[in-house]
């Protein structure tokens, strides 16, 4: 997909243009969703190859909830879609949040707060906008539609009702150590994938690690 040029153009297959697409995911129907990083937008590629923009103005801006193409985003490099077609991306302003984009294009804050400064020792679990993130770098969806989040030195779970809890690790850890839950340490979580058995595979700087579902 895409014509190979630095552009922001919707269209069919090679007629479309992207600018640094960084991450992709697929819905249950086989449609692809793209984090088009420097077009500051979420793009959808349908199974017939048609490319459309579902959210983002295409111009760098400060995130505020709204509707589809009217919402400005800063750059983002992670994306996930659940079984109902809701798309999730991270956004950072002076703080970090996770944004939910409904199938109808409604853009809302799902968890965290982009307008609250968070240092590493301020990252915390919570519900919805009361949770605090330090640096979200990876997203994935499990079989139960929970959002699994890679955040610096932590792996988190966010339920469909926006309850945020730490599965493993600790923000600010600079070492890598195996263990159970928060006794494990990650150096830098950069990618996440979930196996058919529910185990979580984590890209941790110089290695791939596995979190076994309990």
Structural write-up:
This protein has 214 residues and is an all-beta fold. The chain has strands at residues 11-12, 21-26, 32-36, 41-45, 50-55, 66-67, 80-81, 87-92, 96-101, 106-112, 126-127, 136-141, 147-151, 154-158, 163-169, 189-194, 200-204, 207-211. The strands form 4 sheets. The protein has a 5-stranded antiparallel beta sheet with strand order 1-5-4-3-2, with no helix packed on it. It starts with 10 loop residues before the first strand and ends with a strand. The mean pLDDT is 94.
Order of helices and strands: EEEEEEEEEEEEEEEEEE
| Mean pLDDT over the full residue set | 94
Number of helices: 0
Q: What is the radius of gyration computed over CA atoms, rounded to a whole number of angstroms? A: 17 Å
Shape: globular
Distance between the termini: 39 Å
Strand pairing plus helix content: what structural class?
mainly beta
- Major sheet size, sense and barrel closure: 5 strands, antiparallel
Based on DSSP secondary structure assignment, what is the total number of beta strands?
A: 18
């Amino acid at each position: 997909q895409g014509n190979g040029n630095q552009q922001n153009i919707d269209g069919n297959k090679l007629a479309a243009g992207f600018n640094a697409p960084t991450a992709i995911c697929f819905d249950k129907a086989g449609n692809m969703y793209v984090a088009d990083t420097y077009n500051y937008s979420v793009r959808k590629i349908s199974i017939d190859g048609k490319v459309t923009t579902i959210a983002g103005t295409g111009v760098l801006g400060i995130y505020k909830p709204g509707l589809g193409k009217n919402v400005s985003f800063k750059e983002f490099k992670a994306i996930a879609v659940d079984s109902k077609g809701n798309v999730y991306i991270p956004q950072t302003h002076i703080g970090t949040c996770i944004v939910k984009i409904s199938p109808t294009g409604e853009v809302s804050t799902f968890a965290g707060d982009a307008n609250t400064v968070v240092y590493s020792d301020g990252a915390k679990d919570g519900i919805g906008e009361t949770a605090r993130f330090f640096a979200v770098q990876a997203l994935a969806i499990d079989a139960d539609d929970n959002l699994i989040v890679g955040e610096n030195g932590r792996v988190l779970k966010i339920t469909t009702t926006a309850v945020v809890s730490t599965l493993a690790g600790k923000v600010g850890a600079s070492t890598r150590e195996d263990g159970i839950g928060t006794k494990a340490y990650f150096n830098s979580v950069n990618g996440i994938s979930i196996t058919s058995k529910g185990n979580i595979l984590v890209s941790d700087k110089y290695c791939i690690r596995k979190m076994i579902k309990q």
